Amino acid sequence: MDRLAKLSDLLIAENASQNLVAKATIPIVWQRHIADSAQLLELVPATQAPWLDLGSGAGFPGLVIAAMRPDLEVILVESRKRRVDWLERAREGLALENCRVAGCRLEDVERFDAGTISARAFAPLDRLLGLAARFSTKTTDWVLPKGRSAAQEVQGLPKNRRKMFHVEQSQTDPDAGVVVGRGQWSAKP
Ligand SMILES: C[S@@+](CC[C@H](N)C(=O)[O-])C[C@H]1O[C@@H](n2cnc3c(N)ncnc32)[C@H](O)[C@@H]1O
């Protein structure tokens, strides 16, 4: 809780100089960003490392996961320089030794086997899966907060391949869903 409180303070201070999160969400930063990220841990109870967070931006959910689970290796991928600098500062400020920032495009990250893959507000589901496919294995867990379009995005996947995913209702927004699944996604059908 101390680490999460510090993350909230750091984020609010940083948001005054760069637009990390919508200003309207600052008064509800705990519910809208921190709890929204933390709930993902309940959806993958036997959490596997390394946890790969795509397009971490302000640090959600990756920084929250790293702060709550110091035993897990967490890798944050973010391409925008100012956001990479923020993530590095936050990581240092929170003394998250289990967390690493890959400051480049996901397409340029060297391949490794990810235990868990998360992505919040990163890309449409089919594109996200295509980009992340090479990091997945038969046992990779996917936890993808997708807002109100979650079910529709899963339905949009090829019929024979969508069965590895299902949608869980978000605990922080009853209208939103989290796409959850396990397995290897192949970039080619
Ligand atoms: C809308 S923000 C979401 C940030 C964070 N996940 C959240 O929910 O607050 C999407 C982030 O993904 C990053 N991004 C987009 N495409 C990327 C790519 N191909 N590789 C790495 N980062 C990317 C953007 O720079 C941006 O910071």
Automatic annotation (TrEMBL):
Belongs to the methyltransferase superfamily. RNA methyltransferase RsmG family. Gene3D superfamilies: Vaccinia Virus protein VP39. The gene is rsmG. Transmembrane segments: none annotated. NCBIfam families: rsmG_gidB. It is found in: Cytoplasm. The keyword Nucleus does not apply. It catalyses: guanosine(527) in 16S rRNA + S-adenosyl-L-methionine = N(7)-methylguanosine(527) in 16S rRNA + S-adenosyl-L-homocysteine. It comes from the Bacteria. Its EC number is 2.1.1.170. This is Ribosomal RNA small subunit methyltransferase G. Keywords: Cytoplasm, Methyltransferase, rRNA processing, S-adenosyl-L-methionine, Transferase. Specifically methylates the N7 position of guanine in position 527 of 16S rRNA. GO terms for molecular function: rRNA (guanine-N7-)-methyltransferase activity. S-adenosyl-L-methionine binds at G55, F60, L106, E107, R120. PANTHER family: S-ADENOSYL-L-METHIONINE-DEPENDENT METHYLTRANSFERASES SUPERFAMILY PROTEIN. It holds the Pfam family GidB. Its main location: cytoplasm. HAMAP family: 16SrRNA_methyltr_G (MF_00074). The keyword rRNA processing applies. It is an enzyme of class 2 (transferase). One of its GO terms (cellular component) is cytosol. It comes from Qipengyuania citrea.
